[in-house]
Input
Amino acid sequence: MLDLKNLSGGYSGSNIVQDVSLCFPEGKITVIIGQNGCGKSTLLKLACGQLAKRAGELLLDKQSLAALSRQEIAQKISYLPQARTMPDITVEALVLHGRFPWLGYPRVYTVKDRKLAESAMERAGIISHRKKLFAKLSGGEQQKAYLAMLLAQDTKTVLLDEPTTYLDIEHQLELIELLSALKSDGRAIAAVLHDLNLALSCADQLAVMQAGSLLAVGTPRNILDLGILEQAFGIKVRLEQSYSFERL
Amino acid sequence: MKGFMVYSMTKNKSFAVISACLIILIFSAFLSLCLGAADLSPAQIVQGIFEGDSSSSGRILLHVRLPRLFAAALSGTGLAVSGVIIQTVLNNPLASPGILGVNAGAGLFTAIFAVFLPYAVMLLPLAAFIGALATVLSVYGIAKKAGLSKITLILSGVAIGSLMTAGINTITALFPDVLIGMHDFQTGGFTGVTPQILFPAGILILIGTLAATLLGGELDVLGLGESTALSLGLNVRFYRFLFLMLAAALAGAAVSFSGLLGFIGLIVPHITRMLIKGSRRLILFTSALIGASFLILCDTIARTVFAPFELPVGILVSFFGVPFFLWILFRERRHRNA
Output
């Protein structure tokens, strides 16, 4: 369980995130939503220590994150950044990099590392492309390859920044299924999502942000009932009967 | 089963490429020892090694051919490995020690050092390393301030590089005899190489290459970009600095005895990556082999085509390297479109 307490931070001087207290519990999917530039991505970066916090506390299972080394953090929290590079390597090599925090010198993979990478590729649905060059995959497949890398990292807490960009509807549903499976493993999942429909349908806990602060946290039902979305996005939300999609 | 076959095929391909590179390296080294103003037969070479200074072929071998061979091999290794590191760490396939002005920075410091401490030849590589490191750090710093896009990095490299070159030109204009032993310093070449200059620089290049290879895992992760590398637990700032230092040491050491050989550090990493896809360890090692063989061959041709006159190696590097590089570039493009 990752506990964010009165967290503030940002880039060069100004605080983009201000005094946010939020908890990512195990076995739950927390989805962070809010308008562009409200500090969702910054919050995730602060939560995993990519960005140094200016104030507040980060507690991982009641232990302060500040006491851990970068490698120890990487063994407990994995993070999918929004901006990703296109390395000139095979899918399998990329996924194996997920084992990096667990390797000692001189960074040689064991049989266990290879097995974990293999099952990660299987879970992410990318195993048939394992020998392909990453750069030659489609956008959706590249996304899956990065997700497989995260799975291979095998952490209790998983943070994802916009994991559904580049994905068409089928792959979006696949991703949500994958997140649910991770949740049943007993992992704590937190994701920034842009698509409100998707956020409402898969979140156990919805965190709504506005201008760097946390506006409200609750179940999607709660948030809808209290009219928080109207306030945060300046829109009117109506629940109507609509088409529902399921994977074949 | 199919997956396994593909797996062993890629393994075999890397193995085949590395074996081919090794054979080419041995062949070109042998050629370089045999050919020159006076050609030596293979028998004379073996004889020369045992007889040493007592025979004329032994003297040619020990005092002319072998230092040149090692100079070319070490310089090629240093520049190629430095190129792989710089391209990976800065995440920019257009970068190289030549383009970022690192070679020119090393050259300027070498020249300044040669003016003020002309007898401390052993310390030349150290001066070159300091110049290279100062250049790479200032280029990185400027580009970072200006937004660190791929283009700003190259532009600030080109800018700092021409500043350094202007410095070298000033020194050669004011102190024309200083680099007299290295009269092809600007184009790059091995005419003035002596074992005294070569030895410390060579040690630095060998240690740098070994260190880079040992840290291949970290270099791989750094190549995934800052965010991903951080999330995988790598201390990005520390390793980025360490690798830039290694790259500066390698390029600086090479420049201290071979002058401004620019193109090697750009093309060799590209050629290697077109031949094999794999871990950075494999790419570093193969680049070292290709860089060494390429410079040995260029040097051999430079010494022989107009013997007893010789061309600066840098000219040949451009004459052979550019068309070869363009050919590979277009071939790769065709493959991609096909």
User: Anything to note?
Assistant: DSSP finds nine helices and ten strands in chain A.
